[in-house]
Amino acid sequence: MSHAEQPRSDAELAEETDRIVAFWTELSLPGLFDVHTHFMPKNVMDKVWSYFDSAGPLTGSVWPISYRYAEDRRLQVIRGFGVRKFTSMIYPHKPSMAAWLNSWGADFAARTPDCLQTATFYPEDGATEYVEQALTNGARIFKSHIQVGNYAPNDPLLDGVWGALSDAEVPVVIHCGSGPAPGTHTGPGPIAELLQRFPRLPLIIAHMGMPEYVEFLDLADRYENVRLDTTMAFTDFSEAGAPFPRHELPRLVDLQNRILFGSDFPNIPYPYLDALHAVRRLDLGDDWVRAVCWGNGAALFG
């Protein structure tokens, strides 16, 4: 626990849980579908938390982890919120790590049936083979973190990966926007190039492409298999530094069926409820909120 962080009381968590359940109950939903949650091997999660604690260069500020619990407790919390389906967003920051993470992700999904089996990759020899193996083993969703991995999405070592995922029609949640800080390979340009080469590739642009919202919405307009997730977008936390342009709200209605709710649980510096309120207060209508928080994920993943 970082010095800047106070553990949340059981009473606070219970109150938040009640309010989250009320949120989706009032919308007549069966629960929530969250496409962007992090479950990782403990040693990897500990390193991620340590990075946030140290105000790492990408964040540049204190970032309290709101749900810093052991894995079993985190599962209990998110299920209590009514999240019926979620993911275990895993990603490597160096070679010779992805295949091991994929093995862990398969094991985690096997013992956690409400988690979509998640896999990942890195530009390295053998990437195509272990991605194909992950698909054979039942992976439903992949994670690509251009920023942390510091790799070019158009690296030739990934050509076979993109081809396999495109053919399998298995989505990739890709952190490719330049928030919270630009990376060597972030931004819409490399993704536009990637989609020119693989126009059927099912990408889910993490964080609505923050802060390049408009350019990533343009790509969603152009390519029918491009979706966006709401992770951290529209919240007070993100609006302070990277506000979503209000004149673009009608485009969110036009793309209603391709926007998916994501939270970044547990690694968020605010309550989970904030993410739901952020989606609702866009004032795009209950049908839009229902599609984003449940229907689109359920339709995409069956």
UniProtKB/TrEMBL annotation:
It comes from the Bacteria. Keywords: Lyase. CDD domains: metallo-dependent_hydrolases. InterPro entries: ACMSD, Amidohydro-rel, Metal_Hydrolase. Signal peptide: none annotated. It holds the Pfam family Amidohydro_2. Residues 34-302 form the Amidohydrolase-related domain. This is Amidohydrolase family protein. It comes from Rhodococcus navarretei.
